[in-house]
Amino acid sequence: MGEILTISNYHPNDSSASIDFETHSHNFITDMPSGQIVCNLCGLVKETNIIVSSWDGVPYSDETTISISKKSLMNINPNLKRALKLNRNKSWDDRKLTIGINEIKRLCARFGLGEYIVTRSIYLFQKAIQCPNFKIHNVILTSQVCFFYSAKLNKHPLSIEEVIEDHNFSSRLAYRYYYLLMSQLHLVKPESNPAPLIPKLCASLGLDEFVVQQANLILSIYLKHENTSGLNSVGIVAGVIYFACLRERIPRSQQIIAQYAKISDITLRTRYKEIKKICGRHM
């Protein structure tokens, strides 16, 4: 009968050692890394894939996850920290609401608008995401047009191009969302007053106060004899300023004015022809 080896002198790959597998008594132990019950004398596997009831390591728990997350957040890009802090158990409707409210608050802080605009915009956004037509649309752009409507209703001199300039949305798509918002929520179209946009665009083009006065005069005549409902306010202002520059012989091309106004050259030429036709008869 072979010698019974102990755990100290037995190795499975040692061919010089010999064991009588039929007569020796097994000494089974639990191998934690592999999850098996094996004999430490002959290597016989009694059971595999066992469920370990106790473990000397650190157990998995929510507190462990939180501590690991806090340590890992120190070495992560700050732009990703907010994404890691999001509660993964939130529904998509709750996430949409959080994303939209954060975007509205960001826009109000950027343009320095009051708390009333924040409250009004959030109220419109909450009603908009409940409409079937907005459930599959972009959340950020929906919140932006809600903010734009609230600002325009309170006669703040903002253009929709300024609102969406931080994202890769086109002004045409933004206006489609804007008109869809008014039709779905049955909102009254706010009165358009392009006059407050004139000083801002003239300052960007490097024009003096005299051009601002001439542009306001031309705009008042144009609005008196033309219905501007549905027209882009920035396009009207750009056409008025271009017409004033031509009258005062100030060198500002259509491409330069359209670039600073963030509109197309075609829109500028169309508004200029309308303004020239009306103001040419009444000036």
Automatic annotation (TrEMBL):
Say yes or no: keyword Transcription present. Answer: yes
Q: Which InterPro entries match?
A: Cyclin-like_sf (IPR036915), TFIIB (IPR000812), TFIIB_cyclin (IPR013150)
UniProt entry tagged with the keyword Transcription: yes
Which keywords has UniProt assigned to this entry? Transcription, Transcription regulation
Q: Which Pfam families match?
A: TFIIB
The species this protein belongs to is: Candidatus Lokiarchaeum ossiferum
Indicate what this protein is called per its UniProt record. Transcription initiation factor IIB
Q: Where does the Transcription factor TFIIB cyclin-like domain start and stop, copy by copy? A: 192-277
